[in-house]
Amino acid sequence: MRDERADMSTPAPFDTAAIRKEFPILEREIRGKPLVYLDSAASAQKPRAVLEALQNFYQSAYANIHRGVYQLSAEATELYEGGRDVVQKFIGAQDRREIVFVRNATEAINLVARTWAEENLEAGDEIVITALEHHANIVPWQMLAERHGTVLRVAPIDERGDVVLDAFEALLNERTKLVALTHVSNAIGTVNPLEKMIALAKAQGCCVLVDGAQAVPHRAVDVEALGCDFYAFSGHKLFAPTGIGVLHGRLPLLESMPPFMGGGDMIESVSFERTTYAAAPQRFEAGTPDIAGVVGLAAAIHFIEGIGMNAIEAWEQSLLEQATASLEDVAGLRLIGQAREKAAVVSFVLDGIHAHDVGTALDRSGIAVRVGHHCAQPLMDIFGVPATVRASFSLYNTPAEIDALVAALNETREIFG
Ligand SMILES: *Cc1c(COP(=O)(O)O)cnc(C)c1O
Q1: Which of 141, 155, 253, 280 pairs as cysteine with 130 (C-beta 3.0–4.6 A)?
Q2: Is 308 left (phi over 0), alpha (psi -120 to 50) or beta?
């Protein structure tokens, strides 16, 4: 299946039936109905290729990595370090040493806050984020502000959910040391015009961190072309296991940064008088890492590349169009976020029915959506809602599933009157 699809760059026939067969969990029934999984923005399901890679690794190549002189350890090390090469190519990084394995996007951002920012920012220095950010790209900067007196500035969005670029630009000044932006909003799907925003930030000499948690599963990402300094994402939204994530950092920056956590594997030499640290990326990978997670992540990336990111994006965009058009016909439904460019996420509220009640009603039809503030409470405040219902689409979703969602929403509407 993989070879036939390689290099598919036009939105030609997308064989969802074949793709769905690769995800065993999609055969499940929930309450006697076929599972309709519309929560991939929270976490994506795992294809057979990833499940098998984990199984094979634990069954026949498992050992701790680095320093092992025996065959098994050498094999495991090769798989782990090979995973670094796979990630490097996947996001277009210049050097394999720019790939740091962490637990998730949250840890990647905290790592930068605790090392680079700790070292380079002082009281009064400013950090600019946007009103679209996930809590993972807000709270670490607030914590830094508490420790160091740095100042957090927030670029506003308009009623569609697009960042107001003039206002963003106006926030940048000689005190701005860091611009930390989400690539794609998890709550309302806005795709930020990163090239423009990074160019503006760079014109002011700012360091730029991109939260790519919602971008890497849905569009081709090239960190070199983007020109950012740091790029963070999680494996579990990319069809890989939980517990593995990536921080990409420009090599000169990583090399200049102090360690994050101390322990084994991140040192060059240790004595009770003095310890010296390993070079990047090992300096930031203290302790036994998630070796199996890296094996699973590499398998997930191969799986995606076998289908083709452009084909995946085109498929998801067609689902987004269908969903947007048919949800607009549901009585009393208000879409939250209609940005110019969106990823395949629809966030909405139903007039007079609490989002949690909608979620519970949909669950009765086997439909899994997320309800709540989506770890973006400030963003919910801007739209004047405490919570939304969010359906998010992935490569394994189908037009029939969107029809099922719409039918269940109409039913819910009737029940609640
Ligand atoms: C999910 C998400 C995060 C956090 O990811 P974790 O895997 O929970 O660390 C950060 N930013 C965005 C935009 C997300 O969607």
Answers
A1: 155
A2: left
